[in-house]
Amino acid sequence: MNPITLSDAPAILKEFLGYMQTIKGKSAKTIQEYFFDLRTFFRYLKLSRGLVESNTPFQEISIEDVDICLLKTVTLTDVFEFMNFMLSEKNNQAAARARKVSSLRTFFHYLTNKTGQLDKNPVQELETPKLKKSLPKYLSFEQCIDLLNSIDGKYKERDYCIITLFLNCGMRLSELIGLNVTDVNLKEKVLKVTGKGNKERMLYLNDACVEALQSYLKVRPVEGVIDKKALFISRLNKRMGPQSVQQMVNKYLTKIGLHGQGYSVHKLRHTAATLMYQHGNVDIRVLKDILGHENLGTTEIYTHLSDQQMADAANANPLSKIKKR
C-alpha cells in the first residue's frame, strides 16, 4: 500500500485495508477504491455529527481521529442519509453509490465478523442501488477482421499479437500487461494469466493466438530491455503499461472508424466473450472460467441474443407468412 495515499487513514482503516490486501489478496486498485469510499463516508459522518465546523470544505475534513467508538454509533439510517447526500450533493450515479454500498458492507462485516469490534452489523440490511442493465458493447465479426487488418507499422507483430489475444482469449487489460515470457507455453498451447485477487488460471490458445505469439516472439526486443521477464515491450524497452496499450488499441479503432463510439480495450474482452457464446455455442459455465469471473451472474450478461437471432426467431413463428386475404 502506498503510504502517501493512506497518510490520512486512521488506524482502524489501515488495519482493514491491510487485511483485504494481505489476507484476501485484493489488488492495489481495489484497496484504493475501498480507501476512497470509506474516507468519503467518514468525512460525511464527522460532518453530520457536528464534529467539524459546518463550513469546512468537504475534501479538507480529516479522518485521522475516526475510531471504533465513533463507528459504534453508526446506524442504518446514517447510511441511508449518506447515500442521499452522495446523490443530491455529489451527483453520484447508481453505479458509484453501489460501489460505496459494497465497500461499507465489506468494512462493517470485517469489524463485526472478523475482528469482533462491533456486536451488530449496522449495514446488514443495506440494499444495493438498482443498476440499469445494459447490453455489453462489442465488435461484430466483420469489425474484428477490419481491426486486425488495420494493424501495421514498426510494432505490427506486437500490436497484432495483443489484439489477437484480447479478441480470442477475453483477458483483462491488467492480465495482459502482467504477462511474462514464461507464462507462454506454445508447445502445450496454453497461457497462464493472473487475474483479480492474484488468482491464476490457464487459457488455451487457438491457432490464431499461437501464430501471433510465434511471430511476435521472433521480433521481441532482448537487448536493453529493462524488464526482461515482460512479454510485451514498449518502445522505451519497458513492460507495456495500461495507458500505452489503450492508446495503441484506440489508434487502430480510429483507423476503422470506431473512434468515439464507446469502444475500448475492455470492449475487446466483451467481444471475445460474445463471439464465443454466440458463434461457438460455449457453455456459460465454461465461459465463466475462461473470463475468470467469480460469479456466474457476472458472465450471464453475455447470454443476450444478437439482432440476427431475434430476427430469426420472429421469422420462425408459423404465422410470419400469413397475410390478410
Task: Give an overview of the whole structure.
- This protein has 325 residues and is mostly helical.
- 50% of the residues lie in helices and 4% in strands.
- Strands 1-2-3 form a 3-stranded antiparallel sheet, with no helix packed on it.
- The N and C termini lie far apart (75 Å).
- The model has no long low-confidence stretch (mean pLDDT 87).
Question: What's the helix and strand layout?
Answer:
Blueprint: H1 11-22, H2 28-48, H3 68-71, H4 76-88, H5 94-114, H6 141-149, H7 156-169, H8 173-177, E1 184-185, E2 190-194, E3 200-204, H9 207-219, H10 242-255, H11 265-280, H12 284-291, H13 296-299, H14 307-316
Strand content: under 5%
Q: Give a count of the beta strands, DSSP E runs of length 2 or more.
A: 3
- Evaluate the radius of gyration: 24 Å
Please report the number of helical segments: 14
- The general outline is globular
Output the keywords.
single chain, 325 residues, mainly alpha, 50% helix, globular
Structure in a nutshell:
The protein has 325 residues and is mostly helical. The protein is 50% helix and 4% strand.
